[in-house]
Amino acid sequence: MDVVESFLSAVRSTLATLTHGAIALLIPAAFFIALAILLKRGEAIAAGRRAAHEVRTNLGLYFIDIVLVVPALGVLTVAVATAMRALHLIVVPAEFWLMVGAPLTLLAAVFVGDFVGYWRHRLEHTRWLWPSHAIHHSDTEMTWLTLDRFHPINRVTTTIIDSSALLALGIPAWAAVANGLVRHYYGYFIHADLPWTYGPLSRVFVSPAMHRWHHARELRYAGTNFATVFSIFDQAFGTFRLPGPCDVPLGLEDDTGRGVAGQLAYPFKRWFGPLFSRKPAKAADQP
Ligand SMILES: [Zn+2]
Ligand SMILES: [Zn+2]
């Protein structure tokens, strides 16, 4: 009886998570659909149809993420925080941020968060982490929902690197959460199919056009524009490229697998496939 009750309780809680997850998408969906209709007019429906198969994969990964990955990442974040405290790795005391005040703390959290995110993203483009990051680049019809196309292993490396950097700086939990929300919702915006380059403001902020170049199929473009919020970091480290609105083919030359199952299996095939195959593995295209 207990087993049946536990099973039913797990089903109820999963259904509640899925419902909350669907509701969380409603406002961004309404916003980006309205923008698409305003900008593309009659072409919006055809663009939606073209993107439908990629959107299905992105939604599949999103729902797997909120049911299975997010709870695991919560536990992982607590474990990282506990380990860092035990090892005395928190170098800035909490009092410093109390003295600085909330608005500057928030700005620092987003700025430092983006600096760390920039270098973590560059690490994801090295041959060790590229297989788990590649599926984010495999969307050929990029939309705002491409932000939800990440492999769970990519989520784990992001969480460990980003949260340990913010923890080391003693950034308070509320500011770290606020930084996560800014990156999430601004992340939706820069993945949307918008031709905006921001003009002179592109020297400060990442625009949708700038991030679209990062998703270009041609490797010389995909190896640029790693920041999420501030383009300053790409300019400082020589990876800024914004020739105008991005109108080149997106995605990857490599086949990263069909649908959700194929995408989830891809990095394991890249990492461990050669161990079980007699044929020499073809090197993956890696920007
Ligand atoms: Zn990337
Ligand atoms: Zn992206």
What brief labels describe this structure?
single chain, 287 residues, 11 helices, 0% strand, globular, binds zinc ion
| Ions and ligands | zinc ion
Characterize the main sheet.
none
User: By helix and strand content, what is the structural category?
Assistant: mainly alpha
| Overall pLDDT confidence | 94
Overview of the structural elements:
With 287 residues, this protein is mainly alpha-helical. Helices cover 67% and strands 0% of the residues. The protein is built from eleven helices and no strands. Helix 4 crosses helix 6 (152-168) and helix 5 (130-137) runs antiparallel to helix 11 (259-276). The longest helix is centred in the N-terminal third of the chain and has 44 residues, at 43-86. The N and C termini lie far apart (54 Å). The mean pLDDT is 94. The protein binds zinc ion (ZN) (2 copies). One zinc ion (ZN) binds at residues 121, 124-125, 133, 137, 214.
Tell me the layout of helices and strands.
Layout: H1 2-40, H2 43-86, H3 94-100, H4 102-124, H5 130-137, H6 152-168, H7 173-191, H8 208-214, H9 219-222, H10 232-236, H11 259-276
Helix pairs in contact: 1-2, 2-6, 4-6, 4-7, 5-11
Bound molecules: zinc ion (2 copies).
One zinc ion (ZN) is lined by residues 136, 191, 211, 215.
